[in-house]
Write a structure and sequence with these properties.
287 residues; alpha/beta; Purple Acid Phosphatase, chain A, domain 2; 11 strands; globular
Amino acid sequence: MLDYTLLRKGAYLPCEDEYIIVGDVHGCIDELRQLLLQNGFHINQDGLIDPDSSSKSIILLGDFVDKGSEKKIAQTIEFIYQNYYHLNRDKSRFYLIMGNHEDMIYRYITNDPSLDIKSPKRQEEKRKYYNSADLLERDSELKEKFLMLHRESFPWLKYLYDEHFSVTLTHAPCQEQYLAKDNADAYKKMIKSVSRSKNPNRTLDELIPYLHQEAKENQHYHVFGHLSQPNIRQYKNKICIDTSAIYGNRLSCLLLKERALDFDSTPFLNQQKSATQQYNLLFDFAY
């Protein structure tokens, strides 16, 4: 079983920097590149981002693997790997948050005994949800790059500008008692919320009622992905920016500077076959 105590602790972001915070990529490398380009980054023919082309730092909110084609997943890992170490040479300019797909892929490719990997159920789950595992098991060099990125990922990041404005970033929504806490139980909650696939007849608002119940009319925001949606969903200080790029919709980001939030997105570019899903809408009630 994955030892969550081995994960990096969370961290506070420098509040003098500005950030582009990108939702679930899931192998949508073309859309990720386009989103960075339209926000001022220059990318050379070798795929390296010019660190002087933008003052923004990049944060990926988790789930950069799985669901996309193997070709695009490989390109995504390569792009993130080379630019993570390229941009972070002198100071932190590229941050990764742990997603549940990175967590599970790690468990598959390191033969976590608690998964019972050879069982028919796990093999079907692997085929259906975690297609990056087979790719990484065949490609040892790409596997090592993924493992290095996994080790560099944070369970949470926090931007604390002042007593009136902050942004806490996690992959999945979680109850406030777990938010930005450094212990194994909190890490699990921030990486993955309750399974929608195992509860197909319940709405998201029924499955995770704490999210809207704990929402507040203030500027201490909690921003997350994980719950693929047709558009950015916000209720009070709770914001989901996973807008289902791999399902043929859009890849979205939050732009953060000082005490201001803004949003941007780019459409699915049809460079691979999109996945399919039926949306389970978050905050599906009269505001």
